[in-house]
Amino acid sequence: MKVLIVEDESGVSRFLAQACLEAGYAPQIEGDGTKGLAAAKAQQFDLILLDVMLPGMDGFEVCRQMRSAGVQSLVLIITARDTLEDKIQGLDAGADDYVCKPFRVAEILARMRALLRRKSSTSTALEVADLSLDPGTRMATRGGKLIHLSATEYALLEYLMRHVGKTMPRTTILDHVWQYDFNGNDNVLDVYIGYLRQKIDKGREPLIHTARGVGYRLGVL
User: What is the pTM (predicted TM-score) of this model?
Assistant: First the structure.
């Protein structure tokens, strides 16, 4: 497994590289955003560990440009920027997970394993009525028409489609899609459900349904 580490603090990058080596991964280090982007586009990495506050180009922009260029590598952002807005920005830029500094290497390795397991188990397209989602290409269509999704919209739709016909509690969705503490501010879920409804259900038979006081369900009534 090839891992790209994009981190400008040499002590942190060497520490992560050593942990990757001991876990059986093959790490490569790049010390700024521009070089990290070039490496990600030039080679096929299984996973990228990406800092945000980088010289040359910040990590959010690196991630956005990677996804725009079709880079399919898993991206785990590791940064000291720990606000809710930062986390949402990182996930919307195309990251698959987000960890705040300071971190424990055991957690980083566990999240890497989880992401790699998730990728290996998501090769089959998901279908509900005329809605289709291909986890391999991260492309969604309804009635054959392509639907453009942000990273967070994609993660939310994939989770609901993997639990088709089941009413999923709000807290469960938040835990699995966003994977961090909202400190009671869970209205971001309603915002993203609204985004999905505009893209998937507008002008069509609704597939996303609200269970008031409980959560949401995806399926045909």
Answer: 0.58
